[in-house]
Amino acid sequence: MPEPRVISFREALREAMVEEMERDPSIFLMGEEVGHYNGAYKVSEGMLERFGEKRVIDTPIAETGFAGVGIGAAMVGLRPIIEFMTWNFSLTAADQLINNAAKLRYMSNGQFTLPIVFRGPGGAAHALAAQHSQALESLYAHVPGLKVVMPSIPADAKGLLKSAIRDDDPVVFIESEVMYALKGEVPTGEHVVPLGVADVKRPGRDVTLVTWSKMVHTTLKAAEALAADGIEAEVVDLRTIRPLDTATILASIQKTHRCLVVQEGWPFAGVAAEVIALVTREAFDDLDAPPDRVTNLDVPMPYARNLEELVLPSPDRVVTAVRRLLGIDDRPARPAVVARRR
Question: Which CATH number fits domain 199-325: 1.10.540.10, 2.60.120.10, 1.10.600.10, 3.40.50.920?
Fold first, then answer.
């Protein structure tokens, strides 16, 4: 195993793109400000100088147009990486993603493949208000033909992006806007993480906490607080929303017998609802309590920071939900006694 070193989330993404572009000349990056400005979040810093304007391509503010150009390029044998400055802006190009990228391989009976990655930041940042704070993974995961990937740490960001670029199907790759400066260990050399494989970020025995992207860090903080009360939570990072690693989720629940899903985004028809439907159908006899979820409040995102914090899932909200699942009403003065199956 290569020795790890500590780099930022944005550096891990850049390494993935640079290594893949050096490996395969058919790969190119296209989007708003990816070249001369080095990327809106500096993910593509230095790539224009390295690869030139034919492979690092600045576009006008026209998501529908450059998403369509990328899809056409993928149909004729290239492997585009299309950067949206934010996934909120992808809504203007939703027809390209949903009606073209997702369906053309099927509608052409396999005569075309669509090896294209759409990537960029998503979810809430800090005080960006209702139109720029949306978690849209549920929308894209709803569509057959699209794969949806959401890493939570730098090592996964690099490994999953490399897998996404090599995939012959369109991949929606959503990066949390507040994690670009997050640092973590990333192996040197070749590092690839397969799509569709979840990761247990913290083992536990009392409750399974299923989550992804930046909510992994919120959930890990909650797990630390719960551990102080003697409650050991297992944190499962989905990493890939579609395809979903059902085996890892179910194996964890067979051990803990309780499930809470923590999701940034609105509750109605969300990924959390899909996970709960899966758990209820496939692990009903393993459950000691009804599965539950912690999500955004069901409102547009406020601009005020104090209200934004109320809308988003917090460690305290996760702790409260776990204690409710365990039937513990009041925080005890000593470690809790959790009923466990023998």
Answer: 3.40.50.920
